[in-house]
Design a protein that fits this description.
Distance between the termini: 23 Å
Mean pLDDT: 86
Order of helices and strands: HHHHHHHHHHHHH
Structural class: mainly alpha
Strand content: under 5%
Number of helices: 13
Number of strands: 0
Radius of gyration: 18 Å
Number of domains: 1
Helix content: over 70%
Shape: globular
Length: 275
Amino acid sequence: MLGAVAAFSLMDVCLKLLSPHYPAMQVAALRGLTSVPLVLLWIAFSGGFRQILTRRWRLHLLRGLLAVLMLSSFSFALRDLPLAEAYSLFFVAPLMVTALAVPLLGERVGWRRWIAIGVGLGGVLIVLRPDAARMASLGSIAVLVAAAAYSLSAITVRALGKTDSTQSMVFWMISLLTVFAVAAAWNDWVAVRFEHWSILMVLSISGALGQYAVTEAFKHGDVSIIAPFDYTALIWGVLFDWLIWHTLPDRMMVMGATIIIASGVYLIRRGNTPH
């Protein structure tokens, strides 16, 4: 999961660089299109295409639709929000995953872990110092929509992991994302500019590696334990904001980030203890 977060953070940099130049749905489509060749090569050299056979089409279709919603919403939000701020809002996802894992997967989540996640979300509020206008902005709402879609997708991975291979889950997610996003973006498609091809290459590699890593993480780990590793994205967000957009976090963001990371570390150290 740590590797997945690092790869997806680099992918998000690419999405943010592309989002001012292309419609949000096209950015989601480009994420899928650039990853397909690498995914196909990986499947071919890791056991062949028989691994992608599945009977659970409904879950794969749902996951593909959720991927389109998540990526298009997040790409839209990145037009206006710094990475660190977008990640701070996105951190509602671990709480959503934990809440959904109880009724949908039958996982046990004790009160101490609920409190730790709540404390982490309190840290997010410190980072954002939200007011009514800020929280009602389209960018903020788009991030929350993306977080909800991500949380549901994580639950489907856990369910699919009982019957389907990692290759199957990655292939159908990327393929369906590509088909759905290209179809939705077709009428407003903008020609890709030559100077953006290097960004697309990085998007391809980081997106494919991140998808493999996150699928493996949610397939083999307890969802409510794996999800808090998402908090490490804030570190990457601050770093990339500084390196690329020359913005630095203020004291309140550092304080909030410390609380978020501390709560995540507590959850990790609790391991599989259900209390």
